[in-house]
Amino acid sequence: MSTADVHIATSGYDYDHWRERFYPPGLARTRRLAYYAERFPAVEINGTFYSLPKPETVAGWREQVPEGFRFVLKFSRYGSHIKRLREPQASLPRFAEVAEALGGALGGVLLQLPPRWRPVPERLDAFLAAAPAWPWAVEFRDERWLTDEVLGVLRRRDAALCVHDALAGHPRVATAARVYLRLHGGAGEGGGYTDAELDDWASWLAAERDAGRAVWAFFNNDQDGHAVVDAARLQARLGG
Prior knowledge:
By secondary structure, this protein is an alpha/beta fold. It has nine helices and eight strands.
């Protein structure tokens, strides 16, 4: 598998508190995406969870990044948390307008489900069946969803289980042609990751890569710029 199939990056990029920790002094905010995209192969956009930008705005993002750079969009909370996957036709079309404005720069869509929500596998299955055939990753925030039945839904729909560390003991299971990892904060100072933690994650990701799966990993510990530092450290461990 080529390094093009490994995408290690951060959740978001447009942070004022990254000034002088990552972005050089004097860099205009409008230049942040281009600067970021010179150093990482992808970015996870969390803002689409809260509100959807205009398609022309999203098309403008694509023009600021090099060929091969990918955006992963977080699905809207209207569909995931308010509708709770009911009536997909109410949430998917508007989101699709935004996602499709990225063209080939769309790397996938992250569907995060609410905490404290009992499993409804048939509703997840119906939603994914109705959804466009994008590369989907599904993040569960309630451990009751982590059952064989739910994992079977993901496998049937070729949707990746989003492995993450916000739930203790979350299983590391591949359910699709890619693995998808989100890291929300480590045991190091200020939420950074220790060498031992990164070595452990790198070992798992390398095994999945060597098994032929694409690797996507995003650091969400943006405080104090830890995400960009830790993403670079994990990249180095995987030969990126």
